[in-house]
Amino acid sequence: MTLSDTPPRTPVLVDAVDDRHPDDPIARRLRELGFVAGERVEIVAKGPIGAEPLLVQVGYTRFALRRAEAARVRVLPLAKEAA
Question: What is the pTM assigned to this prediction?
Fold first, then answer.
């Protein structure tokens, strides 16, 4: 599943960020922002037009991402006892 497919207010764990090509600057930037394996993330809100941008929270920091950027982040469901 990807972050863009995640329902709002559903915590998930980052599995990986997909590179579209070698030395992908968008994938690199997502990792620099904290989208790394094992990190807890959730979609806080979606924009009014086409559900874009997505307001995403990583730790205590929030970012606005395009749906195409969020689609690069593969996520896993959060274990019930960790929620």
Answer: 0.88
Domain 3-78 part of CATH 2.30.30.90: yes
Where in the chain are the domains? Answer: 3-78
pLDDT tens series, the chain, 83 aa: 999 999 999 999 999 999 998 989 999 999 999 999 999 999 999 999 888 999 999 989 999 999 999 999 999 998 765 55
Query: Residue 25 and residue 5: Cα distance in Å, rounded?
Result: 22
The span from the CA of 55 to the CA of 10, in Å, is 13
